[in-house]
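so im writing up the methods section and need the Cytochrome P450 76C1 record in one place, dumping it here so i stop losing it
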Amino acid sequence: MVVGGTDTSSNTIEFAMAEMMHNPETMKRVQEELEVVVGKDNMVEESHIHKLSYLQAVMKETLRLHPGSRVLVNVWAIHRDPSIWKKPLEFDPIRFLDANLDFSGNDFNYFPFGSGRRICAGISMAERTVLHFLATLVHLFDWTIPQGEKLEVSEKFGIVLKKKIPLVSIPTPRLSNPDLYK
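--- predicted struct ---
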């Protein structure tokens, strides 16, 4: 399960970072939420994750736009259906703040981990891993793309969904406590 979830989790993190860098107001809002929940002199811990509702919405929106795979059911098309989603091609985590959508696969408008007998066995691990990595990356650093580069969020289809062009970004420490970077 750990090996099977490595590609999909790392791809989800890469897509989420690319979407936040493409939508700087989203990145800023996640950083503000982290400052309130975690504080500027602390590292992100697992106990913080359930309090990060906007970051959870960012992950859900990332999985809506970039689901891990298209095996059996075309989740990619369902998650972009304008009869189901308002402005389906826009990255908008706010749509998940008041919505009661989870990863259980019971709502057939949103099931990035599949549903029924084919549901992903690693949902819980993937959710924790992706949220903890994203929280840590966004909390510790400001992110930019190299000068002259264009941020591309296009997809490459395969067994798992990947970014067509890998994300290249520059981290800049954003917290004042140098011990947090050791």
